[in-house]
Amino acid sequence: MTTLLIAWVLLLPVAILIRSPFHRLPLHIDTGFYVSNAVIRDRRLSYRQGWNARFAGCGKVLPEVMYSLAFLWTRRWEGVASYRIASRVLATLYNSVTSLALGVLMLQVSGGDSLMAVAALWVYSLLSSEPQYGVYYECSELFENLFQVSAMAMLYAGFASGNPLFIALAAFFWVSN
């Protein structure tokens, strides 16, 4: 587990650097949907008046909070470029947490093989950091992977240990998704 955490810490600056050439690209259409008019008007996070609470049945909490926070943090610089960079750096940080969860899952599935876990961590992070490799670059589906991978890790841990608490946590992660 220590090797996995060290690899994850070393991966963070690499993932941010790999993604930096894409900061100039136009934003994905989803990023604009999650910053509500109430956030833009009031300059504060207003969850009750947001798109998610009104139209999505509270199913997109994380994207709305993350993209709204990126907007609020960059409002001082008053530029689309700073919002693009902030939203993409936050997405990279969130994606790195997903890669850590995938590394933990691979550590369990491989029987404790640190090399396999580090490889899963790095491969997921590198492939998901570039827009040409799929739709998970910066749309709302990016947020589903963490819950799915965490649920699989909890399910595997629950069946391996016979602990029903892990199985219940897996169900919670799937429902939360």
Describe the structure.
- The chain is mainly alpha-helical and 177 residues long.
- Helices cover 71% and strands 0% of the residues.
- It has helices at 2-19, 29-33, 37-42, 51-55, 61-74, 80-109, 114-128, 142-161, 164-176.
- Helix 5 crosses helix 6, helix 6 packs antiparallel against helix 7 and helix 6 (80-109) packs parallel to helix 8 (142-161).
- It is flat, with a radius of gyration of 18 Å.
Task: Summarize the topology.
Blueprint: H1 2-19, H2 29-33, H3 37-42, H4 51-55, H5 61-74, H6 80-109, H7 114-128, H8 142-161, H9 164-176
Helix pairs in contact: 1-6, 1-7, 5-6, 6-7, 6-8, 8-9
Number of separate strands: 0
Q: Structural class of the helices, strands and pairings?
A: mainly alpha
What is the radius of gyration? 18 Å
In terms of per-residue confidence, which ranges show pLDDT below 50 for 5 or more consecutive residues?
none
Shape: flat
Largest sheet: none
Characteristics of this structure?
177 residues, mainly alpha, 9 helices
Briefly say what this structure is.
The protein has 177 residues and is mainly α. Helices cover 71% and strands 0% of the residues.
